[in-house]
Amino acid sequence: MRACVFFFLAVIAAFAQSNSDAWRSQGVIDVDHSPHATLHTVPIHAVQMGDGFWSPRMRTNVERSIPTMLEELEQHGIVDNFLRLSGQKQADRRGPLYTDSDLYKWMEAAAFVLESGDRPDLRANIDRLTTIIAAAQEASGYLNTYYVEDRKDKRFTEMYRSHELYCLGHLLQAGIAYYRATGNRNLLDIGIRFANYMVENFGPTKRPALTGHPELEMALVELYRTTGDRRYLDFAGYLLSGVEKERLHLTDAQVNYMFSGIPFTSRKQFEGHAVRAMYASCGATDYYSETGDPAYLETLRKLWTDLVNRKMYITGGVGSRAAGESIGEPFELPNAQAYGESCAAIGNMMWNWRLLAVTGESRFADVIERALYNGINSGMSLSGTLDCYRNPLESTGEKIRNEWYDTTCCPPNLERILASLPGYFYSTGPKGVYVNFYNNSHLDWHLEDGTGVKLDQKTEFPWGNTVDIAVTPGKTAVFSIFVRIPEWARPAQVTVNGRPAPGTAEAGRYFEMRRTWQADDQITVRFDMTPRLMAANSLVRENTGRVAVMRGPLIYCLESPDQQAVSVSLFDMELTRPAEPFKQEFRRDLLDGVMVLQHTGRAAEKPLENEPLYQIAAKVSRSATKPIELTFIPYYAWANRGLTSMEVWVPLK
Amino acid sequence: MRACVFFFLAVIAAFAQSNSDAWRSQGVIDVDHSPHATLHTVPIHAVQMGDGFWSPRMRTNVERSIPTMLEELEQHGIVDNFLRLSGQKQADRRGPLYTDSDLYKWMEAAAFVLESGDRPDLRANIDRLTTIIAAAQEASGYLNTYYVEDRKDKRFTEMYRSHELYCLGHLLQAGIAYYRATGNRNLLDIGIRFANYMVENFGPTKRPALTGHPELEMALVELYRTTGDRRYLDFAGYLLSGVEKERLHLTDAQVNYMFSGIPFTSRKQFEGHAVRAMYASCGATDYYSETGDPAYLETLRKLWTDLVNRKMYITGGVGSRAAGESIGEPFELPNAQAYGESCAAIGNMMWNWRLLAVTGESRFADVIERALYNGINSGMSLSGTLDCYRNPLESTGEKIRNEWYDTTCCPPNLERILASLPGYFYSTGPKGVYVNFYNNSHLDWHLEDGTGVKLDQKTEFPWGNTVDIAVTPGKTAVFSIFVRIPEWARPAQVTVNGRPAPGTAEAGRYFEMRRTWQADDQITVRFDMTPRLMAANSLVRENTGRVAVMRGPLIYCLESPDQQAVSVSLFDMELTRPAEPFKQEFRRDLLDGVMVLQHTGRAAEKPLENEPLYQIAAKVSRSATKPIELTFIPYYAWANRGLTSMEVWVPLK
Prior knowledge:
The structure is a homodimer.
Chain A: H1 2-18, E1 40-41, E2 47-49, H2 54-75, H3 80-83, H4 99-115, H5 120-136, H6 159-162, H7 164-182, H8 186-201, H9 216-227, H10 230-241, H11 252-258, H12 274-291, H13 294-311, H14 342-359, H15 362-376, E3 387-388, E4 394-395, E5 401-402, H16 410-420, E6 426-429, E7 432-435, E8 441-446, E9 452-459, E10 466-473, E11 477-485, E12 492-496, E13 499-500, E14 509-517, E15 521-527, E16 532-536, E17 546-551, E18 554-559, E19 573-575, E20 583-587, E21 594-604, E22 614-616, E23 625-634, E24 646-647, E25 650-651
Parallel strand pairs in A: 7-11
Antiparallel strand pairs in A: 1-6, 2-8, 3-5, 4-24, 6-7, 8-9, 9-10, 10-15, 11-14, 12-13, 12-15, 16-17, 17-18, 17-25, 18-23, 18-24, 19-21, 20-21, 21-23
Helix pairs in contact in A: 2-4, 2-16, 4-5, 4-7, 4-16, 7-8, 7-9, 9-10, 9-12, 10-12, 12-13, 12-14, 14-15
């Protein structure tokens, strides 16, 4: 019976996918036909973002970040690496072995932009690059600019480091995004040729394959969703099955670091390279959504708990150590030394997006919101042209924003998130439509039964605490609208047409309003946005006696330019336990407009660094302090005013 | 005038060194003729260590550690690496590029043992190895088992990593130690041939030289002291002058990491690789003691303050990060993630030994004591056959002790410290004799005017708090005896023949007793050894709200096998603020005999790891706790009972 249902669903999926217009309705990921997805995505073009918090970031992304990054990629020879293979350029290959992926990720970002409206310049660039890439592809389908010439005989012999399959994954994602934006398959077909080469030559009874840097797994599932060709799903399953440890002579240290090479379902905790771990989990979730293998869901839930209860920064960042760019031990969450690679926070968001689709549980959206507004949002400067690789939670003034990194994985990753952002705001399910996140925006889509639905969201979120949603169904109909009540939003109030909606709007849940909806129905959601002091588990050593200030989804920080001029540093200041509330002021002139929070604190009269390093505890005299006004800004906006010191976790007196 | 004095002293030095018996009076370092040394060393053979704290460690070192390590070195091909060069072995070279140094350091340790009394087996092994090494030396003097054959043309082309000069430094130190033990120059002469090759071919107007891993600097100064040949001192000065950054195309990152390559006197703080930084500082101090260049002393004092006030573990360990085995930012002193390489604590001790000689200031001996009893002493298992590379201050049970490391720098380094230990206990100065450290021991040496002096020290230090010193001068004479009052020893009392000695015995100073000393005079020193709770500067984030227990020179820790069986881990326990004193009990059966400390504390009823990672501070409820007896053991003795959890900095309620 179950097999029959599955077969039936597969047939529907194949049908939908064979429809030549299918690309028009596919979201950032396309789970509309995934048998084990609870929520379904809406295409990016179905959501128009209005003015508000994200629109200046998205505009800067399109107008500054994306064009600048292409220039950087061209200047650093990343495009030439392809041109030289087709004899159009005489030059040495440049950059580390994974540079192809950076260009593909840029193309994916540009393709996502096109989903929100045509941009002939961007489209022309993607088409030009596609031609260049196609010319570099070998007849076999193999495509990689590093494993050529002298290194040709090393192909697939050092998969633990080679990034050949990582690059293929990003090629496929770029091809899929461009196809979903335009219906043009040229780039996708390049990826398919290489994917076919893999499927035909590698596998349990053929040559062994391994994703030394997971990424291809999720790309292959997406390719299956796009083409209906089950071989890609099966190959993703083969990669996740991790059965090639012996044939590839992998060490324990390697499988820990790579987060691949042993069965994904044997994992009990996160370890190793943070981005690899996140991407592997994305692939495993995608695989689950198609296959329903319960061992995957069990492992994914265990890993999620491990991350969210023990290893995630309050900013949604992941990765405690520079050494190995790795996830640390449980509760090892240093602030100044935090690695928190932008790509890892993005991987965290991408993974939780998949978990949200699978389960429909709001807590996964909570993690997305935390990462998106904080640990991802901090990754790109307000100017859009300087990116962070690391996102520490404390700094004495190091230069963390740069125009270019030789390993430039993060910048185009940030660009693809911003470009695809509209696709995350709404979902659909069998019962109706879900409002996942809050920003001025307009959804023009349809319920799963085909009834049109428009939602017009007006809000000053995350500065304001009210969201108005005007509902316009294609026809008067009974269905549900689910609004997400974030975990921090207690209490929250929801009204429909001015009257309290029946039921309790519980924080950390979607609040369902099932009723007959008709034109001009109006939902209003109000959140408590009082600034709150957050404490960490006392096993997080660095945060003992410290608090982080949070307002709505935003984590705040102290940054040196905002503090009163005193003779001591930021690190000699402490927050006074609140008797009075925080002063809140929206400063349009500051950092492109931020809500500033102020509270009294105290500053040491002499720098603490002059105190002895170790002394008898009974003899420690609290150094003299004086009152001071502390000014907090949102964490994401720090490091936009030169080299500054910054602190998220502030001592509480 | 000053030049004349200098010339005069140099002549004396040269005379002393030409004396064929000079080797008999030379200490671990020989500063007897160093114009800028305040204290002078006594030879190792002048001090007989009696039973007590160190003698079992030293006996195990001679009987187990040193023989086992030679076996390991032989088994891992480190000796074969030499034999293959003289055609006595057909085999591939084995091990990393610096393995020669490990053998030399083993030879130095063995030579130090011989200074305390002949051991024909050890002597025979050194002689055998010397013959093997000599046969591998090239006619030019060049000697290195890595830069041969295919790699021959890379000699001195990659000094930032090659360790060629590091190996030479250890060869010279081994040769000097064996010469000082036996008068046999064979090994020394091998080193001299290579040193001459360097001096003749490298320099500001010749080929450029660099110590990519400092070490040769101090060895060259010691070679100058041993031979009187000033070229070696000058070459050490050239290396420390750091003038070859341009000729060698060194990057800023390289000179930071190596702690060489720019003028030593331009350094303002510690950074980079911890062992490199410590060894470079040793060399610079040695260089100062011969030249008196004030820029060196100023830099050394600045660096010392940086280390001791901002970057040193309470155990005397150095090096916060695994990444680059490096010193971190000021106050970056994580506990579980501490690197604290044994070699770095040893380097810290060696450096402070040199600073003590230069200045005569007790605070340098305080650092030696801190490192020796804690961060060095922890490095070797009680069995003597398992060594730590890392010395963390907290552990969830990782395997930190191993028989062998491919980079086996630490084990023979620990062995040479234990073998040379008698040489650190006493010093002389123009006014008399200095008692630096406390252990049952017998000094049979002479004052600087030639008057014989014997000191017979009886003590149960560091378990007992009393030291009795019987004084037997060669003849009744007026001179000073200085006893060191450790910084932790407040108050301390000193009596001579049962009556309080005039003056105040101030902690952190040498206490001078100047009088007419005659046979049977008896000094007694009593220290306060009440266990104390130590606090760290509040800028050390990990130690906020925590204390370390210290008793005398020993840092204590909680280790899991000693705690009451409860359902939670060590990390869910806290110390109750002392109302009553610690219970103290010497347990002869435990860990080769340790003073155990006990105090009431509290343990959480449920593991803290199940608490939320982040929550609203006002809602944090202190989890329920119950009283528990906490048992502390000395830090150095941890990890001798399998894989255990351990914590030095304990939360204080």
